[in-house]
Prior knowledge:
This protein is of the alpha+beta class. The protein folds into 2 domains: 7-59 and 264-414, no CATH class; 66-257, no CATH class. It contains 15 helices and 10 strands. A 6-stranded mixed barrel has the order 2-3-8-5-7-6, surrounded by 4 helices. Strand 6 and strand 7 form a beta hairpin. Helix 2 (23-64) runs antiparallel to helix 14 (380-406). The longest helix is centred in the first third of the chain and has 42 residues, at 23-64. The protein starts with 6 loop residues before the first helix and ends with a helix. The relative contact order is 0.19.
Amino acid sequence: MRTALPYEISIGLRYTRAKRGNRFVSFIALTSMAGIALGVWALIVVLSVMNGFQKELRTRILGVASHVQISGDAGRLADWRKLAQIAAEHPRVVASAPFVNAQAMLTFGQGVRGAIVRGVLPEMEERVADFGRHMKSGSLADLRPGEFGIVLGADLARMLGAFTGEKIALIAPQGTVTPAGVVPRLKQFTVVGIFQVDHYEYDAGLALVHLEDAQRLYQLGSAVSGLRLKLDDLFAARTVSRELMAKFDAGVYASDWTRSHASFFRAVEIEKRMMFIVLTLIVAVAAFNIVSTLVMVVTDKRADIAILRTLGASPGSVLAVFVVQGALIGVIGTLIGVASGIVTGLNIDVIVPAIEQMLGFKFLAKDVYFITDLPSDVQVSDVATVAVLALALSFAAAIYPSWRAARVNPAEALRYE
């Protein structure tokens, strides 16, 4: 048994698909629909790319950096093993690793580059960082105490012109006092590996050596620069750092990734919000084109409205007819935009390289941006927010013309018919 639609919906649908009448009105309606679809598509794609960028940046940074870092006064920790035991008692701490952080100048042939030298214990470093799966050649296990091996970032190695097996010179800023004055400390290292995490800051400026070699080179004795912790939940880093601080002695500090890399993630978050606001204006402009469309439809259908009123239709029913027409434009445009946005967002890794190849240049230069590929992470919450926003704007735009239609005086409308 078929259930008839309410006549308000039936008439609203009939007005939307009617082929007779003012073609200009139909053109504006189609333009509004296309504008809403375009705005929704752009919003979903941009938000997905920003989500992907944020996720990728966080993954790559925290694959090399630490969730929580423990350090001491003057950049030294004397008894790091005791601190590691205290940290290990926290239920969220998965692993810890000591490190030495210092600056150095690396030279090979005619190449000279400044770099951050990080002394590590390979077996412990593998538990807190992802260097192992990013090695292009060699491995962290090739760093052995006393052999003065070094692992370079891929871009750093390329700029120096050094490959695995080459011997490079490392110049430490800490000098040695001689009768001739202060002479920089210089030591020859053998390149035993090259890593690439696809994050320019690390690929072009980080070198890894064994912890004992770094302690000897920088005259630290048994002290280290700090302790790196890995947690089971990176978003608990701020809470864990505060709880650990309460257990440590004075002069020992704990900081988390949300502080040490706050500027990166804050910038991405602000940019995401601004792009959302800017692109929402596209949807708003398209949605409010519905106003002009419905105003012209109301003007064109004044006689029809008057007849409906004389047949007993209430002002509310007339209002509903035109709200249905305006909302339908918004619904169709939103559905097209959502479908297109999801498809584009899920296939951005294929679409962008194809466009780059066609145009002959790369959108994300490695020496400018932190990552070189355009990531995407389509989130249901973003899609739902954009769809609800577009529908709400479309519905709001239909209210005023529909209210004007409901106020049409039947006698005035039929006077010259």
